Fold this protein.
Amino acid sequence: DQQVKQNSPSLSVQEGRISILNCDYTNSMFDYFLWYKKYPAEGPTFLISISSIKDKNEDGRFTVFLNKSAKHLSLHIVPSQPGDSAVYFCAAMTTDSWGKLQFGAGTQVVVTP
Amino acid sequence: ETGVTQSPTHLIKTRGQQVTLRCSSQSGHNTVSWYQQALGQGPQFIFQYYREEENGRGNFPPRFSGLQFPNYSSELNVNALELDDSALYLCASSRKQGSTEAFFGQGTRLTVV
């Protein structure tokens, strides 16, 4: 039962443009959401997170938007850089279950010059 | 700031054998979680240990077991290996309270033949 879904397995974007990654979830008990980036042969690294009490969180080039009514979140990367080429995972959890993350299948982002 | 190390990095085992994977948590982190990432999928939560006690388990059979030691390092043991156990195994450490970020190791790639 996949409770976190990333329906786009891949995304190609030109350097300098905006990358938009989408994520949907089915479990209304989730109240904390995270994005991780993963390079080959490395573990996932934390990017940005958002609590369900907010609808937006920004950190430099990265912004996460949360639409609770639609059970949808998105990650915006502006401007995209070649070093952003990686697999991006959306993850969710309940705050009474710290660290027990439910992940989506990931989106492979390729930033072209 | 990761500091989570896993060993070995790669491993090949025969069906029916047993395997032990190791994880050294980041200093100051008393919680470790293990994940299985099959090819083309996101990480799936196996279980979590907090202060040497199992603190939640995902949908994995009992032949997946773990230990956490007083220095907060951890082991994942898998008995009676099956071909479908071939995957990347990730451990992640975090502080139990107040931390929403899990820091991942680079993973152990297990191949069962």
